[in-house]
Amino acid sequence: MNTATDSVMTVKEVADYLRVNQRTVYRLAVDRKLPGFKVGTTWRFKRADIDRWIDAQAASSQPEPGAGIS
Questions:
Q1: Can you say whether the dihedral through the CA atoms of 69, 53, 20, 23 is positive or negative?
Q2: Radius of gyration over alpha carbons of the chain, in Å?
Q3: Are 34 and 26 contacting, i.e. CB atoms less than 8 angstroms apart?
Q4: What is the pTM of this model?
Q5: What is the mean pLDDT of residues 20-49?
Q6: Whole-angstrom Cα distance, residue 7 to residue 21?
Q7: Domain ranges for the chain
């Protein structure tokens, strides 16, 4: 039984989910900047891994508390 958090997504599904071009997903996957794995010649992505990646990206782009205050 697949739930939303353990489902496997295709490049197109990840691109739609992230609202980016499919080429961007391929580039990030090949560069190992996006968590994914290959099945034969096609890339697949676990939704839970993508969600964790999104959280990590959001956290790394947040300014440090008190940053910019002199």
A1: positive
A2: 15
A3: no
A4: 0.80
A5: 98
A6: 21
A7: 8-60
Beta-carbon contacts of residue 43 (< 8 Å; ≥ 6 apart): 10, 11, 25, 26, 29, 36, 37
What would be the CATH architecture of the domain defined by 8-60?
Orthogonal Bundle (1.10)
Q: What is the DSSP letter of 38?
A: E
**DSSP 8-class letter at 61:** T
Residue 51, both tokens: 């969600």
Per-residue pLDDT tens digits for 50-59: 999 999 999 9
Closest CA to 9 of 40, 57, 50, 41: 50
What is the DSSP pairing of strand 42-46 with strand 37-39?
Answer: antiparallel
Tokens of 35: 């968590």
Query: Of 18, 13, 22, whose CA–CA distance to 45 is shortest?
Result: 13
Helix (H) or strand (E) run with residue 43 in it: strand 42-46
DSSP codes joined into one string, 2-14:
--TTT-EE-HHHH
